[in-house]
Design goal:
Blueprint lengths: L4 H9 L4 E5 L2 E5 H17 L7 E5 L4 H12 L3 E4 L6 H11 L3 E4 L1 H6 L6 E4 L22 E7 L7 E6 H15 L7 E3 L7 H4 L1 H6 L3 E4 L7 H11 L2 E5 L1 H14 L6 E6 L6 H11 L3 E7 L2 E8 L1 H5 L6 H5 L4 E2 L3 E6 L12 E7 L10 H7 E2 L2 E10 L5 E6 L4 E3 L2 E3 L1 H9 L4 E11 L3 E10 L7 H9 L10 E4 L13 H9 L1
Parallel strand pairs: 1-10, 3-4, 3-5, 5-6, 9-10, 9-11, 11-12, 12-13, 24-25
Antiparallel strand pairs: 1-2, 7-8, 13-14, 14-15, 16-17, 17-19, 18-19, 19-20, 21-22, 23-24
Helix pairs in contact: 1-2, 2-3, 10-11
Length: 499
């Protein structure tokens, strides 16, 4: 089935239900939401978009983002969401690799892409919503591609995770089974990027006919979020752990109770035990944790609000430090990397299989082959599972850095720095940070006789990669520690930072 039909059904069931808000202002009911999506789909078809074609969305959070999602699906095309924080060159590479024929963009982002071979349409200025609406929604099979999500890899180039309609359905129904209930009286607030987890949760809220709120700021502002929650009531929000920490600190400092916040689902990085305990103490029983990754979006495990808030169980601290138990649509096990199960309590690779797991990477059979063992997706994360099924993450076998909920892969930063003429060698690692979870640190070996200024390296990075990926600290060294095979010993670099 086409995941887009959920909007059509909601519009038929409750055409007058309020659907899309910008701040406190209602811009559309479900009938209007559906009509705008149909008009955009009509425009896309008129531009020659056929079922299976890729359409990129390069926009910051806004009501237009929701219309773009469903317009693309109504036309039978594939959404390619691009993080609005990416550098234009990074976004252009994704557009080209995906073979996107059209980019739906907004404002300055529409101007910055350059020549990608795709037509760029500014959703805030174009005439797409003046087009005659599409008739029937394009039929799609469950295993047809719906969402092409680019996640970086250790090779330094992003990989396109193929997410099917079946995966999105499984993820959404698992939300209702394992995470939270949703009704037309509820609202979801988009404070985190809609190109990632926040946008993925739009579907289940459309299914249930809930309200969709885009902050006027377009992002995460603590005071604005608390004000919108108080105004709208019954608000759901997806947040990175650093956002939870900031929201708690702001509410505590300004005496805000969090009135109107119904549920905050957190994921995307390490949540420190002290931080979630403080958040629950202040806001109450509203927090839920999930664990997923692009290859199995939002759907590996869940720690329900009862577990997050429980303080009576003998092992409540251990459970709160976990990421919960397997969600309904998947099997989860701890294995040896070859697909063989390990005993309870034994550390190994977290593996997952089921209807929420990707079929593979876009046009990358080698990476796809390495990602699976005996039918199990290898997450690259190390953890343990207790006899009750609770999974606790211990480490990441990959070197990914998670800062403020955003994934940063060291190789991307290293490659950018290595193009500087005064840099001979570089190695990038993450350092624990109480606010951001982790921050990027670059160990730099200058060319012989060269003097490297941190400001120059920072400017160099900003010309090539997104601002949030650049190092927060540069450490100049004479040489990098290496093993006998010439591989940089990043564990030693991290130990230096700890020391």
């Amino acid at each position: 089935m086409n995941i887009g039909v959920w909007l059509d059904r909601a519009a038929r069931k409750g055409p007058e239900w309020p659907a899309i808000y910008l701040g406190q202002e209602c811009l559309a009911d479900y009938a209007g939401f559906d009509a705008d999506a149909r008009r955009l789909a009509g425009w896309l078809v008129g531009q020659g978009i056929a079922p299976g074609d890729r359409v990129a969305i390069f926009m910051a959070n806004s009501p237009a983002y929701l219309i773009a999602l469903y317009g693309v699906w109504y036309a039978g095309a594939v959404v390619v969401p691009i993080n609005a924080k990416l550098h234009a060159a990074e976004a252009a590479w994704i557009v080209k690799d995906a073979g996107a024929r059209i980019v739906l963009a907004s404002g300055a982002l529409a101007q910055d892409l350059g020549d990608t071979g795709a037509r760029v349409m500014d959703m805030h200025e174009g005439d797409a919503l003046e087009t005659a609406p599409i008739g029937d929604i394009t039929t799609r099979a469950p295993d047809d591609l719906a969402w092409l999500f680019y996640t970086s890899g250790t090779t330094g180039r992003p990989k396109g995770v193929m997410i099917t309609h079946r995966m999105l359905v499984a993820m959404s129904l698992s939300y209702l089974a394992d995470v939270d209930a949703v009704s037309p009286q509820d609202a979801t607030l988009y404070a985190a990027p809609m190109s990632h987890g926040a946008g993925l949760y739009a579907m289940v809220h459309v299914l249930r006919g809930a309200r969709h709120i885009c902050p006027v700021s377009g992002g995460f502002d603590e005071a604005e979020i608390l004000d919108l929650a108080r105004h709208h009531g019954r608000v759901h929000m997806f947040a990175a752990p650093t956002m939870v920490k900031r929201l708690t600190a702001h509410a505590r400092d300004f005496g805000a109770s969090g009135e109107g916040l119904r549920s905050i689902v957190y994921a995307g990085g390490p949540m420190y035990l002290a931080d979630i305990i403080e958040a629950v103490d202040h806001f109450g029983d509203i927090f839920i944790q999930i664990y997923g990754q692009g290859e199995c979006p939002m759907a590996i495990t869940a720690l329900p609000r009862t577990d997050v808030s429980d303080r009576s169980h003998a092992r409540w601290r251990e459970r709160l430090a976990s990421v919960g138990r397997a969600q309904s649509a998947v099997d989860v096990r701890i294995g040896d990397g070859e697909g063989r199960a390990l005993a309870f309590g034994q550390a190994g690779e977290i593996m997952v299989r089921g209807d929420a797991v990707m079929p593979g990477y876009w046009q990358n059979p080698d990476a796809t082959g390495k990602a699976f063992a005996r039918g199990w997706l290898l997450t690259g994360d190390v953890g343990v599972m207790d006899k009750d099924g609770y999974v606790t993450l211990q480490d990441r076998s990959k070197d990914m850095i998670i800062s403020g909920g955003s994934n940063i892969y060291p190789r991307e930063v290293e490659e950018a720095l290595l193009t500087h003429p005064s840099v001979s060698e570089v190695s990038v690692v993450g350092r624990a940070d109480p606010e951001w979870g982790e921050v990027v640190v670059a160990f730099v070996v200058p060319e012989v006789g060269a003097r490297v200024e941190e400001g120059a390296l920072d400017a160099h990075c900003l010309e090539r990669i997104a601002r949030f990926k650049r190092p927060k600290r540069y450490v100049m060294v004479d040489e990098l520690p290496k093993n006998n095979y010439g591989k940089v010993l990043k564990t030693e670099l991290r130990a230096r930072l700890d020391a």
